[in-house]
Amino acid sequence: MRKKFGIDIDGTVTSPDTIVPYMNQDFGLSLTYSDIKEYDLSVHVDIPQAEFAKWWLDNEAKIYKASPLTKEVKNVLREWELIHDLYFISARSKHLLELTNEWFVKQDLPFHHIELIGSHDKVNAAKQYEVDIFFEDKHDNAVAICEQCNIPVILFNTPYNQDPVPDGVVRVHSWSEAKAWVDKWLKENA
């Protein structure tokens, strides 16, 4: 039976360490991916949060355009596109839709729909599109989607999402591990 998969983009489809070199270069830091223990990246720079927000707005398009894929994602999504609907739901701002579409085409990634909501609150979009499962890297998003939509959420393990997770949020370390869990879930819920 065809399912709708809700999939975050940044840190899930793209490599979660994408922004680290940009921060190191622009702020004179020497951060490593494992140093990023919080989702809020502004805690790593010694400038006001508003100034960091401006830096992000000035650089987000460049960073998104150059974001590398996370390992294994293309093969898994190519297999799933044939039997499921892939709905990418991202906190990116709506004005980045054309850039995002172009990035998907350049990366040769399959998709059925891309929704940029401009907010980290993805619950309404998950409900609107009636997704059956969600793939996420942000801890509080994963928990909220799981609890409010009553669907399983695959949480890709990162240094910044180490808080405990409730039943229904499944922590994985790779797309192949996610695929194995999803394959089992699909068989159990056929």
TrEMBL record:
The keyword Hydrolase applies. Keywords: Hydrolase. It comes from the Bacteria. Its EC number is 3.1.3.-. It is an enzyme of class 3 (hydrolase). One of its GO terms (molecular function) is hydrolase activity. Gene3D superfamilies: HAD superfamily/HAD-like. Belongs to the 5'(3')-deoxyribonucleotidase family. This is Nucleotidase.
